[in-house]
Design a protein that fits this description.
five-stranded mixed β-sheet, alpha/beta, about 375 residues, binds ligand AOF, binds zinc ion, about 20% strand
Length: about 375
C-alpha cells in the first residue's frame, strides 16, 4: 500500500477534480503490475495497473489506495475489471466518499466472493486526498491559506517591501503547491501593491487558475495578470457589471458576478460556491491580509500554511498575515489541528487544519 501511495502522488495537480489513486498488483510475492490515475477522464488506477500486468493477474492480490468504483462515469466501473481479471484478494486504503460508490464497491467485490480488507494505511490514504474528500461532499473548493512572515509576524516591511521574506527553499515549495492546487486567489489590494504573476514557475509545472477578489473591478488593465490573461486562465470576482469589468473581459479575463456581503464586498461563500460549480476543487489563498481575515471569518478556509523566517523587521504599520478587524477575544481565536513543522532551508513551514478531522488529529 505504501508503494501504491507513492504511485498515487504522481497524479498531483493532474487529476482534479478526481482523487489521486495508486494501485499495485502482487502475485506469489512479486509485483506484476502497477498503475495510477494519471489525469481526469483517463483510466482509473486499477485499470492502469491491470493493463500493465506482466503476467495473468488471476488469483493475484490487488492493493488500491481508494475503494474501487462501481459506477460508470468518464470510465467504466473498476469493480467489473477486477472481477473479469479474477483477482483473488483486494486490499483498500480508504472508502470512496463519492455517494455513487461509498461502500458499494466493496460490497460488489464481497458479494462476488472476493475477500476484501479495508482501512490499510487509512490515514495516509485519506490525507493525500483531503481536497477530493472535501470537494465531493461540499462541492466548494478546499481552501489553503498561505503566507510567509518574519518571526515577529510581518508579511512586509513598513514600506511594503516583501521581496523576499523567506529563502529559496520555501519559495520553491510554494511553487510546488501552486502546481498541485487548481486555483490561486488574491485580493485586488495585492494586485495593486505587488503586481504579481501568480504562475507556477517550476520545470514541468502547470499554472493554477488565477482568481482575483475585486468587488469593484479595480484590477489595472496593464497589470501583469491582465497582460497574461489570454495565456493563463484568470477570473475576476466582482459584485456587479461595470464598464471596468467589461474592459477586463475584453482583455481576456472571465468575470464572475458574486453576491455582495454586508460591507458590499464579494461574498466569499458565494464565490466558493461559484468556483465549485466550475469544478475548481482547491484554492491557494495567497493574500493579502484583509482577504485572509475575511476568509477565516467567513469560515471558508480549511488549512493554513505559514512559512516563518527567522528574521525580525518590526514596525507598528508593517502588515501581519491576517489583518481585518480581527476577533475581539483570545477565546475567539481559531485553533489549528494536526500541526506539522517542516524545515525548509533556513525557514520553517507550519501547517495545520482549521477543521478537526480524524486524519488531522492523528498527525
Ligand atoms: C477508482 N480508481 O483511480 C479513481 C477513482 O468519471 P470518472 O471515470 O473519472 O470517475 C471519477 C470518480 O471515480 C471519482 O469521483 C471517484 O469517486 C472515483 N475515482 N476510483 O476506483 C481511481 N480515480
Ligand atoms: Zn474506478
Amino acid at each position: 500500500m505504501r508503494r501504491a501511495l507513492k504511485l498515487a502522488a504522481h497524479g498531483a495537480g493532474r487529476v482534479s477534480p478526481n482523487p489521486m489513486v495508486g494501485c499495485v498488483i502482487v502475485k506469489d510475492g512479486r509485483v506484476i503490475g502497477e498503475g495510477w490515475h494519471e489525469y481526469c477522464g483517463g483510466l482509473h488506477a486499477e485499470r492502469n495497473a491491470l493493463a500493465h500486468c506482466a503476467e495473468d493477474p488471476a488469483g493475484a492480490k490487488l492493493y488500491v489506495t481508494l475503494e474501487p468504483c462501481c459506477h460508470s462515469g468518464r470510465t467504466p466501473p473498476c469493480t467489473d475489471a477486477i472481477l473479469e481479471c479474477r483477482i483473488g484478494r483486494v486490499f483498500i486504503g480508504c472508502l470512496d466518499p463519492n455517494p455513487l460508490v461509498a461502500g458499494k464497491g466493496v460490497q460488489i467485490l464481497r458479494n462476488a466472493g472476493i475477500p476484501v480488507e479495508t482501512g490499510v494505511c487509512e490515514d495516509e490514504c485519506r490525507r493525500i486526498n483531503e481536497v477530493f474528500f472535501h470537494f465531493i461532499t461540499h462541492q466548494t473548493p478546499f481552501v489553503v491559506l498561505k503566507y510567509a512572515m518574519t518571526l515577529d509576524g510581518k508579511i512586509a516591511s513598513r514600506t511594503g517591501d516583501s521581496r523576499w521574506v523567506t529563502g529559496e527553499a520555501a519559495r520553491t515549495h510554494v511553487h510546488e503547491t501552486r502546481n498541485q492546487l487548481t486555483g490561486i486567489l488574491v485580493g485586488v489590494g495585492t494586485v495593486l501593491t505587488d503586481d504579481p504573476l501568480l504562475t507556477c514557475r517550476i520545470a514541468g509545472g502547470r499554472n493554477p487558475v488565477r482568481i482575483i477578489c475585486d468587488s469593484h473591478a479595480r484590477t489595472p488593465l496593464d497589470s501583469q495578470i491582465i497582460r497574461t490573461a489570454r495565456e493563463v486562465p484568470t477570473i475576476i470576482a466582482v459584485t456587479g457589471w461595470s464598464d471596468r469589468a467589461a474592459a477586463l473581459e475584453r482583455a481576456g479575463a472571465q468575470i464572475l458576478i458574486c453576491a455582495a456581503d454586508a460591507q458590499g464586498h464579494v461574498s466569499l461563500p458565494d464565490l466558493m460556491r461559484q468556483l465549485g460549480a466550475r469544478q475548481i476543487d482547491s484554492v491557494l489563498l495567497e493574500g493579502g491580509s484583509a482577504l485572509a481575515f475575511s476568509a477565516l471569518d467567513a469560515g471558508v478556509v480549511h488549512k493554513v500554511q505559514a512559512y516563518i523566517t527567522p528574521k525580525l523587521i518590526g514596525g507598528a504599520d508593517a502588515k501581519p498575515p491576517v489583518g481585518g478587524a480581527g476577533f475581539a477575544k483570545m477565546a475567539d481565536a481559531l485553533p489549528l489541528y494536526g500541526l506539522t513543522v517542516t524545515p525548509l532551508g533556513e525557514d520553517l513551514l507550519l501547517e495545520g487544519d482549521l477543521v478537526c478531522s480524524p486524519a488531522s488529529s492523528k498527525k
